[in-house]
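Please check this:
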Amino acid sequence: MKKKSTFAKDGKLFGKISIIDIIVVLCVIVLAFGIYAKFTSNSDAVSSSEKAKIEYVYKVKGVRDFTIDAFKKGGPVYDQDTKEYMGEVTGVRSEDAVMEVSLVDGTYKSLIVPKKYDVYVTIQVDGKYNSLGFYTNENRYIGAGSTVNAQSKYTTTGGEIVEVRQIEE
């Protein structure tokens, strides 16, 4: 007569607790810890930041002249998706929009797109900075390379932040 082990009887630990139940509970604990770490790490860093006046340049490619005029009217800018305040327009400059065209021989040529412009909108906002970067007071990250769907009173555009710096008050 063989004696059955009390450690793993019928797939249960000590005959009472299922090994699969233990694995599921451990996975849930690890997942909960990961979610907690993801959503609390940046907010702790931002809350320990120093106050700063931030100026950044937002680039919008290939727009018509009335979009330039709309930005030149100034005023506040908001994120179109979250409605968060992104700052005040302080400057606008534009240049002819350029498009790269592939030629038959495999080379590229830059061509000016008629009646289209690339616009550089300078925006200032009160915010914070730390070793991780610049943030608005609403804790929105502002960094070069970030894409933004910006909305002002007169226009809505999609573009990219190309430059960020702290300015002296």
Remarks:
- Residues 8-46 form one domain.
- The two ends are 88 Å apart (CA to CA).
- The chain has two domains: 8-46, 50-167.
- The mean pLDDT is 85.
